[in-house]
Amino acid sequence: MAGNGNGETENGVGAAPKTMTLAEAKRLMRLANVEALKRRLEMEGEEVIGYTKLLEACEVMGVARNKEEAEAFARVLDDAGVVLLFRDRVYLHTDKVNASRSLIASK
């Protein structure tokens, strides 16, 4: 295939990698921090933690810069189904909560 002069082939697939923008780099770092946060929480072996502990972990792991960002991020995790927020508790294994809920509903 012939190139178009700007490092891309005719089908739009780049022959050379493009430069990452600052916004993309920040997003990538945040995603890496989220994965590290999930691993850290899961390694502790607890299925339920306090909401305050989640907020503190978000700040320590660099996912959030302050309490307000940590609270917003906790809501995002809840909305995405990564954790389940209920009152002042955070359920880390949403799959187990959903299985229990299905079992109760079937009775």
From TrEMBL:
Phylogenetic lineage: Eukaryota, Viridiplantae, Streptophyta, Embryophyta, Tracheophyta
InterPro entries the record matches: MCU_fam, WH-like_DNA-bd_sf
Gene Ontology CC entries for this record: uniplex complex
Annotated PANTHER family: CALCIUM UNIPORTER PROTEIN, MITOCHONDRIAL
GO biological process: calcium import into the mitochondrion; mitochondrial calcium ion homeostasis
Molecular function GO labels: calcium channel activity; uniporter activity
Protein name (Swiss-Prot/TrEMBL): Calcium uniporter protein
